[in-house]
Amino acid sequence: MFALDDRDLKILAILAREGRISKADLAKRINLSAAPCWERLKRLEDAGIITGYHAEIALKKVAPHIVVFMAAELENHRSADFQTFERAVQPLDEIVACWAVGGGFDYILQIVTTDIDSYQRLVDHLLEARVGLARYFTYVVTKPVKQAGAPPIGLLKGSDAED
Protein backbone atom coordinates (compact mmCIF):
# COMPACT_ATOMS: atom_id res chain seq x y z
CA MET A 1 0.00 0.00 0.00
CA PHE A 2 1.15 3.50 -0.80
CA ALA A 3 1.29 5.90 2.17
CA LEU A 4 -0.92 8.96 1.59
CA ASP A 5 -1.04 12.02 3.78
CA ASP A 6 -3.90 14.52 4.07
CA ARG A 7 -2.61 16.66 1.19
CA ASP A 8 -2.33 13.63 -1.10
CA LEU A 9 -5.90 12.67 -0.22
CA LYS A 10 -7.09 16.20 -0.89
CA ILE A 11 -5.33 16.19 -4.29
CA LEU A 12 -7.04 12.91 -5.18
CA ALA A 13 -10.46 14.12 -4.02
CA ILE A 14 -10.21 17.37 -5.99
CA LEU A 15 -8.90 15.71 -9.15
CA ALA A 16 -11.58 13.02 -9.02
CA ARG A 17 -14.24 15.74 -9.18
CA GLU A 18 -12.41 18.36 -11.24
CA GLY A 19 -9.90 16.63 -13.51
CA ARG A 20 -9.33 19.77 -15.59
CA ILE A 21 -8.32 21.99 -12.68
CA SER A 22 -5.10 23.86 -13.39
CA LYS A 23 -2.02 22.95 -11.41
CA ALA A 24 -1.91 26.49 -10.01
CA ASP A 25 -5.51 26.25 -8.77
CA LEU A 26 -4.87 22.79 -7.37
CA ALA A 27 -1.83 24.07 -5.48
CA LYS A 28 -3.90 26.93 -4.00
CA ARG A 29 -6.70 24.58 -2.97
CA ILE A 30 -4.32 22.31 -1.05
CA ASN A 31 -2.33 25.23 0.37
CA LEU A 32 0.98 24.43 -1.32
CA SER A 33 3.17 26.27 -3.78
CA ALA A 34 3.15 25.03 -7.39
CA ALA A 35 6.43 23.06 -7.37
CA PRO A 36 5.69 20.84 -4.33
CA CYS A 37 2.14 20.32 -5.59
CA TRP A 38 3.49 19.23 -8.99
CA GLU A 39 5.94 16.84 -7.27
CA ARG A 40 3.11 15.24 -5.28
CA LEU A 41 0.98 14.93 -8.41
CA LYS A 42 3.85 13.34 -10.32
CA ARG A 43 4.52 10.92 -7.44
CA LEU A 44 0.83 9.87 -7.41
CA GLU A 45 0.92 9.32 -11.19
CA ASP A 46 4.24 7.42 -11.06
CA ALA A 47 2.88 5.17 -8.29
CA GLY A 48 -0.12 4.30 -10.47
CA ILE A 49 -2.60 5.84 -8.05
CA ILE A 50 -3.72 8.37 -10.65
CA THR A 51 -4.24 6.28 -13.76
CA GLY A 52 -5.75 8.84 -16.11
CA TYR A 53 -7.88 11.89 -16.67
CA HIS A 54 -11.27 11.51 -18.32
CA ALA A 55 -14.21 13.56 -19.53
CA GLU A 56 -17.77 12.73 -18.50
CA ILE A 57 -19.87 12.60 -21.65
CA ALA A 58 -23.64 13.19 -21.72
CA LEU A 59 -24.41 10.35 -24.13
CA LYS A 60 -28.10 11.27 -24.35
CA LYS A 61 -27.04 14.50 -26.08
CA VAL A 62 -24.94 12.60 -28.61
CA ALA A 63 -26.91 9.51 -29.64
CA PRO A 64 -29.74 7.23 -28.58
CA HIS A 65 -28.45 4.47 -26.31
CA ILE A 66 -29.31 2.08 -23.53
CA VAL A 67 -27.39 1.01 -20.47
CA VAL A 68 -27.72 -2.62 -19.44
CA PHE A 69 -26.29 -4.49 -16.50
CA MET A 70 -25.80 -8.18 -17.12
CA ALA A 71 -25.25 -10.73 -14.38
CA ALA A 72 -23.30 -13.61 -15.92
CA GLU A 73 -22.74 -17.13 -14.68
CA LEU A 74 -20.11 -19.40 -16.20
CA GLU A 75 -20.56 -23.09 -16.93
CA ASN A 76 -17.35 -24.08 -15.16
CA HIS A 77 -15.29 -22.47 -12.46
CA ARG A 78 -11.73 -23.41 -13.31
CA SER A 79 -9.11 -20.71 -13.58
CA ALA A 80 -8.83 -21.23 -17.33
CA ASP A 81 -12.60 -20.70 -17.73
CA PHE A 82 -12.47 -17.37 -15.93
CA GLN A 83 -9.47 -16.30 -18.01
CA THR A 84 -11.23 -17.26 -21.26
CA PHE A 85 -14.29 -15.18 -20.38
CA GLU A 86 -12.23 -12.20 -19.21
CA ARG A 87 -10.16 -12.22 -22.42
CA ALA A 88 -13.33 -12.40 -24.51
CA VAL A 89 -14.91 -9.28 -22.99
CA GLN A 90 -11.78 -7.10 -23.20
CA PRO A 91 -12.03 -6.11 -26.90
CA LEU A 92 -15.80 -5.49 -26.84
CA ASP A 93 -16.25 -1.71 -26.65
CA GLU A 94 -19.92 -1.96 -25.64
CA ILE A 95 -18.84 -3.64 -22.41
CA VAL A 96 -17.70 -0.55 -20.54
CA ALA A 97 -17.12 -2.32 -17.22
CA CYS A 98 -16.91 -5.88 -15.98
CA TRP A 99 -16.48 -7.00 -12.39
CA ALA A 100 -15.81 -10.50 -11.06
CA VAL A 101 -18.11 -10.90 -8.05
CA GLY A 102 -18.71 -13.34 -5.24
CA GLY A 103 -22.16 -14.72 -4.55
CA GLY A 104 -24.70 -16.11 -6.98
CA PHE A 105 -23.11 -14.82 -10.18
CA ASP A 106 -19.58 -14.79 -11.50
CA TYR A 107 -19.56 -11.38 -13.23
CA ILE A 108 -21.51 -8.16 -13.46
CA LEU A 109 -21.10 -6.36 -16.77
CA GLN A 110 -22.09 -2.80 -17.62
CA ILE A 111 -22.98 -2.49 -21.27
CA VAL A 112 -23.73 0.67 -23.26
CA THR A 113 -25.13 0.16 -26.74
CA THR A 114 -27.60 1.67 -29.18
CA ASP A 115 -30.67 -0.46 -28.44
CA ILE A 116 -31.94 -3.83 -27.19
CA ASP A 117 -31.30 -5.45 -30.57
CA SER A 118 -27.62 -4.53 -30.50
CA TYR A 119 -27.42 -5.74 -26.88
CA GLN A 120 -28.90 -9.08 -27.92
CA ARG A 121 -26.42 -9.35 -30.80
CA LEU A 122 -23.62 -8.83 -28.27
CA VAL A 123 -25.01 -11.61 -26.07
CA ASP A 124 -25.42 -13.88 -29.09
CA HIS A 125 -21.79 -13.20 -30.00
CA LEU A 126 -20.66 -14.22 -26.51
CA LEU A 127 -22.76 -17.38 -26.64
CA GLU A 128 -21.54 -18.33 -30.13
CA ALA A 129 -17.93 -17.65 -29.14
CA ARG A 130 -18.21 -20.38 -26.52
CA VAL A 131 -16.54 -18.38 -23.79
CA GLY A 132 -18.23 -20.40 -21.06
CA LEU A 133 -21.35 -18.27 -20.54
CA ALA A 134 -23.97 -20.59 -19.02
CA ARG A 135 -26.67 -18.14 -17.92
CA TYR A 136 -27.14 -14.42 -17.98
CA PHE A 137 -29.66 -12.02 -16.51
CA THR A 138 -30.41 -8.66 -18.09
CA TYR A 139 -31.22 -5.48 -16.18
CA VAL A 140 -32.07 -2.48 -18.37
CA VAL A 141 -31.41 0.89 -16.74
CA THR A 142 -34.58 2.99 -16.89
CA LYS A 143 -33.02 6.13 -15.43
CA PRO A 144 -29.80 7.08 -13.70
CA VAL A 145 -30.36 7.99 -10.06
CA LYS A 146 -26.80 8.56 -8.90
CA GLN A 147 -23.55 8.36 -10.78
CA ALA A 148 -20.52 9.29 -8.76
CA GLY A 149 -17.44 9.68 -10.90
CA ALA A 150 -15.28 10.16 -7.84
CA PRO A 151 -14.53 7.41 -5.34
CA PRO A 152 -15.16 8.33 -1.69
CA ILE A 153 -11.46 8.82 -0.97
CA GLY A 154 -11.96 10.43 2.42
CA LEU A 155 -14.18 7.59 3.58
CA LEU A 156 -11.78 4.94 2.32
CA LYS A 157 -8.88 6.34 4.30
CA GLY A 158 -10.92 7.38 7.35
CA SER A 159 -9.86 10.96 6.67
CA ASP A 160 -11.64 14.10 5.57
CA ALA A 161 -10.15 14.54 2.12
CA GLU A 162 -12.84 16.93 0.91
CA ASP A 163 -11.97 20.57 0.42
Explain this structure to me?
This protein is of the alpha+beta class. Helices cover 37% and strands 18% of the residues. The protein contains six helices and four strands; from the N terminus they run αααβαββαβα. It has a four-stranded antiparallel sheet with strand order 2-3-1-4. Helix 2 packs across helix 3. The chain is elongated. It starts with 5 loop residues before the first helix and ends in a 6-residue tail after the last helix. 16% of the residues are buried. The C terminus is likely disordered.
Brief synopsis:
With 163 residues, the protein is of the alpha+beta class. It has two domains: 6-55, Arc Repressor Mutant, subunit A, CATH 1.10.10; 59-140, Lrp/AsnC effector binding domain/regulation of amino acid metabolism (RAM) domain (Alpha-Beta Plaits, 2-Layer Sandwich).
Key features?
163 residues, Arc Repressor Mutant, subunit A, Alpha-Beta Plaits, 2 domains, four-stranded antiparallel beta sheet, 6 helices, 37% helix
